[in-house]
TrEMBL record:
Transmembrane segments: none
Known function: Methyltransferase required for the conversion of 2-polyprenyl-6-methoxy-1,4-benzoquinol (DDMQH2) to 2-polyprenyl-3-methyl-6-methoxy-1,4-benzoquinol (DMQH2).
Keyword field contains tRNA-binding: no
Xref: Pfam families: Ubie_methyltran
Species of the source: Diatraea saccharalis
Record's catalysed reaction(s): a 2-methoxy-6-(all-trans-polyprenyl)benzene-1,4-diol + S-adenosyl-L-methionine = a 5-methoxy-2-methyl-3-(all-trans-polyprenyl)benzene-1,4-diol + S-adenosyl-L-homocysteine + H(+)
Family listed: Belongs to the class I-like SAM-binding methyltransferase superfamily. MenG/UbiE family.
Entry protein name: 2-methoxy-6-polyprenyl-1,4-benzoquinol methylase, mitochondrial
HAMAP family: MenG_UbiE_methyltr
Length: 297
């Protein structure tokens, strides 16, 4: 009997030791699983990806299409994007002495319109020096813009406006507070991972009284028109991308990213949440795109 009791005690002790030895292993596995699932995710078109992966994918998209970017815009919109940008600049209505930050401005479309608008005003007073900082996260897009600026004469000695080209991230700008009198971003904010951070940075770098303006693809409120637009977007635009730029995937992403972007009212609320006041928006071409405007007051 004593031998049986001793054996039973040993078995209980072994089971207890075994249990406590295996518990840390289970905890470690759970921690790893938890860490893996806690990685924040976002959308890349209709794909779900890790947040840190999105900017790399967006960077690759624009790296591959930089040379044909403007040509594709013409083909996809039948040239209407030029009219949208003209209206956008007319709504901004810059004056001499404006300090503009043209965010996601790579190829220079908005910057060149800004300079042309100033040229059409009366000659500037000597104390009113206008400037523009063209900022884009993709150096390939900036390189295209610089070449265009040289060819078309958008340089200080030929246009009288200081133009600076900066490679930077809209979510964490390496620019000082309260610097610019105007901030524009055209067809770029939907490609950012954290739109709220972009808006907060825009607010930070604008001087008091400065104006934020965004031109972006949006949502058509009419269901029938939206259906027609969807058919064109998904069936035609990727094919055009393959024919003109030799790439269809970047343009498939373009179409999907538009559908994922907040509608006009939701985006208006996001701009207000960043601190801007007197926020308004204007639909262009039935709501295909929209201009949002707000002030730092």
């Amino acid at each position: 009997m004593p031998l049986r009791r001793i054996t039973a005690k040993l078995l209980k002790t072994r089971a207890s030791v075994s249990f406590f030895r295996t518990r840390p292993l289970v905890t470690q596995v759970s921690d790893k699983e938890s860490e893996r699932h806690s990685t924040k995710q976002t959308h890349f078109g209709y794909q779900t990806v890790d947040e840190e992966e999105k900017w790399k994918k967006v960077h690759e998209v624009f790296e591959t299409v930089a040379e044909k970017y403007d040509l594709m815009n013409d083909a996809m919109s039948f040239g209407i994007h030029r009219l949208w940008k003209d209206i956008f600049m007319a709504r901004l209505a810059p004056t001499h002495g404006t300090k503009l930050l043209d965010m996601a401005g790579g190829t220079g479309d908005i910057t060149f319109r800004y300079i042309n608008y100033l040229k059409n005003l009366n000659p500037p007073p000597e104390d009113k020096k206008s400037s523009v900082t063209v900022c884009d996260i993709n150096q390939a897009m900036l390189d295209v813009g610089k070449v265009r600026a040289e060819k078309q004469g958008y340089t200080w000695d030929r246009c009288g406006v200081s133009v600076e080209w900066v490679c930077g991230d809209a979510e964490q700008l390496q620019l000082p507070d309260d610097t610019f009198t105007a901030y524009t971003i055209a067809f770029g904010i939907r490609n950012c991972t954290h739109v709220d951070r972009v808006l907060e940075e825009a607010y930070r770098v604008l001087a008091p009284g400065g104006r934020f303006m965004c031109l972006e693809f949006s949502h058509i409120p009419n269901d029938a028109l939206q259906w027609v637009y969807d058919q064109y977007s998904f069936q035609v635009i990727p094919v055009l991308g393959q024919l003109i730029a030799g790439q269809w995937r970047p343009y498939q992403y373009l179409v999907e990213s538009i559908r994922q972007f907040p509608n006009q009212e939701k985006f208006k609320s996001m701009i207000e949440d960043a601190g801007f006041r007197q926020v308004t928006y204007e639909n262009l071409t039935f709501g295909t795109c929209a201009i949002h405007s707000g002030f730092k007051i």
